Amino acid sequence: MWVKICGNTRLEDCQRAIDLGVDALGFIFAHGKRLVTAEHVRTITSLLPAHVPTFGVFTQRDPEFILHTAEVAGISGIQMHGVFDPSLASALRVRFPKGDSPRLIQVVHWDVDEALELQQARLRGELNALADSGLVDAALMDSRTKQDSGGTGVTFDWIAAAEVVRESRLPVIAAGGLRPENVAEAVRILKPWGVDVSSGVEASPGVKDAERMEQFIQAARTGSLER
Ligand SMILES: O=C(O)c1ccccc1NCC(=O)[C@H](O)[C@H](O)COP(=O)(O)O
Question: What is the CATH number of the domain that holds 27?
Fold first, then answer.
């Protein structure tokens, strides 16, 4: 079970997560309470072991901006959090070619306030289009509320989503309201390729709680053994 901890702002949290065996770390360049600058992220990535993948989360659509930010920040992958844009993904692919682990991740959103059948149909279509494009390595299924589309802390209907995840031709990373207390159940139901968490392991926005990170990683991996 691939585990990514997102919304990082502090070196000590990243180092602790690596010591605990996390597979990837994420930094928010989009907007909101966990927003960081490329220069700040560089002060973190320059002190992390090079083998640990680091992702920048972007809602911006300008490839030049994303590539420049990625270069300055020293990150190794991109999470595109807006609507899928094949021309953006193609432009990013040049700098982030396919590797052994994901480097380009596209988010697909589960609208928690909309009808389940509509969500299933829409996400099936989006995941098929992503797989057909051949431009991204994985899809990250995250919750969208009327207020927010990332770091919501809100779960979606895992049973309804499981059918869609099962049919996906791309690896699916589950996100949205995952916590140490519910991640094993989410993994058993959804059977994702990986999981991603932000607010569920925080002491406050952008500040991680070491004990919750440890519990989360352990529970995610226990859930994956039981499925
Ligand atoms: O985390 C944010 O503040 C954020 C803001 C804008 C766009 C994306 C954002 N987060 C992206 C992530 O990858 C989160 O880890 C993911 O949404 C899960 O968040 P949570 O429900 O808090 O675990």
Answer: 3.20.20.70
Percent of the chain topping pLDDT 90:
91
Length reported for the chain: 227
Q: CB of 81 closer than 6 A to ligand 1?
A: yes
Tokens of 208: 């991680």
Separation in Å, CA 134 to CA 12, 110, 205, 214 = 36, 22, 35, 34
In total, how many domains does the chain have?
A: 1
- Residue 205: pLDDT over 80: yes
Greatest CA span in the chain, whole angstroms? 46
Helices of type H across 38-197 = 38-45, 63-73, 86-95, 116-133, 158-167, 183-190
Helix/strand/coil (H/E/C) assignment for every residue in 32-80? CCCECCHHHHHHHHCCCCCCCCEEEEECCCCHHHHHHHHHHHCCCEEEE
CB of 151 within 6 A of ligand 1: the answer is yes
- Range 178-194 average pLDDT: 97
pLDDT digits (tens, 9 = 90+) for 58-67: 998 899 999 9
User: Is the distance from the beta carbon of residue 7 to the nearest atom of ligand 1 less than 6 Å?
Assistant: yes
Ligand 1 atom nearest to 201, measured from its CA = 23
Which residues touch 75 (CB under 8 Å, ≥6 apart)?
27, 41, 45, 54, 55, 56
Report yes or no for ipTM above 0.85.
yes
The dihedral built from the CA positions of residue 153, 52, 81 and 98, taken in this order, carries a sign that is negative
| Enclosing domain of residue 91 | 2-226
CA distances from residue 31 to 148, 185, 194 in whole angstroms, order as listed: 10, 30, 24
